[in-house]
Specification:
mainly alpha
Length: 78
Amino acid sequence: MAKVETRTSPEEEEPPLDPDAVERAYRFHRARRAARQRWHREKRWAGIRFWLVLALALAVAVLLAARTLGEIERVFGL
């Protein structure tokens, strides 16, 4: 003889909801957005630092070359 299947209501079939899941997801996405903004900001500052150090190194090289040429002219009387 066939058995009659008892159906449960949809409320009984749904798993219990985690009350903190929404808050955790909000904090997670907010942290990802903050990390992405921080990465862009650091990338921009890294470019600025690169050009400043390059300009400083170039200025030091020009200063040393000028002093060296001046010293060569003085020593050899060119």
